[in-house]
Amino acid sequence: MNIFLQEPDVSLHTAIIERMNMYRQKLEFKCVETEEEIFKEEFLDAYALFILNLKEPTNPRILNFIRANGGIAPVLLILDADFDPDTLKALYYLSYDDFIVKDFYTQEMTWKIYKLCNVWNDERFFLAQDVYFDCKKWMFHYHDQAISLGKKEATLLKNLFLKSPHVMTCDEIISLVYNDEIVSPESIRALVKQLRAKLPIDLIGTVRGEGYQITHLSTFKANP
């Protein structure tokens, strides 16, 4: 799978590629620093994703060039921390597929790439080459361990991954895990606690007053 990455910061190229190589697949990246190099690319139809850091993201010139020359893949924008929030409406109407704001975790970039490239495809969610969740078999694999989960535990974990890096609210848990049954907050907390107890890593964080989310981890530590 080929990904086109245009980003002036070469160290960020390296960090993203190194992070991706830790996970499920070794993707092929074409890395360029300047926007001008986009116009020199002849095989735009060969890419599964474009990741772009544009000086003027609201200017449709580059997006139009990509689309007019066979590039039909999703476009993920990298926005600098000082970007103008008022531009978000314009970016939405230009039909960019997603954006990420610096400085971001490389894990967050990984998850966005997986989602936009449809790597996370309702089967396996990889955290590392030998750390992953097989949601069809309800099994969490941690190196040489295979941990069996219950149906609700597996459904909750699957939807936490799909929602990541955003928070999964309690209302969403009721809808997606309990099929809109009447469920108390205590029951949800009990399910989360039960799932946490089975996982060998600290993977699920609590966002007080909102819900739960997959935590950003640079290393994986076994629970005591």
| Average of per-residue pLDDT values | 87
Could you tell me the radius of gyration in angstroms?
Answer: 19 Å
* CATH architecture tag of the largest domain: 3-Layer(aba) Sandwich
* Topology-level CATH name of the largest domain: Rossmann fold
Structural class: alpha/beta
Query: Which regions have little confidence, pLDDT < 50, spanning 5+ residues?
Result: 218-224
Biggest sheet details: 5 strands, parallel
Helix-strand topology string:
EHEEHEHEHEEEEHEHHEE
Please provide the count of β strands: 12
The largest beta-sheet arranges its strands as 2-1-3-4-5
Number of helices, counting only DSSP H or I runs of 4 residues or more: 7
Q: What share of the residues lie within helices?
A: 25-40%
Strand content: 15-25%
Question: Tell me, what's the shape?
Answer: globular
- What's the end-to-end separation, in Å? 38 Å
CATH level 1 class label of the largest domain: Alpha Beta
**CATH homologous superfamily label of the largest domain:** Response regulator
Number of domains: 2
Q: Overview of this structure, please?
A:
- The chain has helices at 10-21, 61-68, 88-93, 106-116, 151-163, 170-176, 185-198, and strands spanning 2-6, 28-32, 49-52, 75-79, 98-101, 124-128, 131-134, 139-142, 145-148, 168-169, 204-207, 211-214.
- It contains 7 helices and 12 strands.
- The protein is α/β, with parallel strands linked by helices.
- It folds into 2 domains: 2-116, Rossmann fold (3-Layer(aba) Sandwich), CATH 3.40.50.2300; 124-214, Arc Repressor Mutant, subunit A, CATH 1.10.10.10.
- Strand 8 (139-142) and strand 9 (145-148) form a beta hairpin.
- Mean pLDDT is 87; it is low at 218-224.
- It has a 5-stranded parallel sheet, with helices on one face.
- It starts with a strand and ends in a 10-residue tail after the last strand.
